[in-house]
Amino acid sequence: MAEAAPARQSVEHVHRMIREAILDGSLAPGEAMSQVALADELGVSRTPLREALRMLQSEGLIESEPNRRVRVAPLSLEDVEELASIRISLEVTALRLSVPLMTPEDLGQLEGYMAEMAHHAADDDYGRWYIPHQAFHRALTARAGNRFDTLLSQLFEHAERYRRLHFGRALSKQATVDHRDVLDACKAGDRDLAAARLARHLARTAFGIFELMDPDYEPSKLRQVLKDVSATVGHDTDVEAPMRKPGARRKTKAA
Fold first, then answer.
1. Per residue in 184-201, pLDDT tens?
2. Model-level pTM?
3. Which one of 29, 67, 150, 222 has the lowest number of neighbouring Cβ atoms within 10 Å?
4. Residues 6+ away with beta carbon under 8 Å from 41
């Protein structure tokens, strides 16, 4: 974990340090920590630490244990499914609200983020690629309003925790294709097609994680969310599951 900054006694700083360590995997899922030891490591007093831990607990990133210990929230297939279901529902809604309000400047900004991602992907630089990637997703839904932005930013970061732990820092060519497809639909002013493509893009990562953790897991809630999106926008949201064996494919039908 990085060394604390001069304002290290502030609740916001302590919260940010621990949160970033959880999200980037420095603090492993299920890892238990003593509050005393954690305060010593961070060089902070117990008061801001306790408040920061309460904030993290409300966000679902830590769990309290007896004897003043805390535990990093473990990962689970059920949580992946719930996270993906909520994110798709909210982000698709925000996109459909945003597309009719997008200006040429908004679309130019999105193209700029695409160019930045392509540049860093060519160098296989995930750390730099991640920044315009997050900005791209936020810009897609920015016109929906600040509350959407705040909630979606949190969901993006939680989803990224799962993605990094299961796929590492590998860059996906499919993600580039998905981003271009969503942006092209936005440029055409077709909010329904953009929504279907975004839902499929977000679901693809979740299905990939299911395949890695337990190929037999059945994400019925997520399938229902995709089916509802498809019914609303009038476009398929089918996702091609990862190949299990050479020559074998499985398709996750949403409608």
1. 999 999 999 999 999 999
2. 0.83
3. 67
4. 1
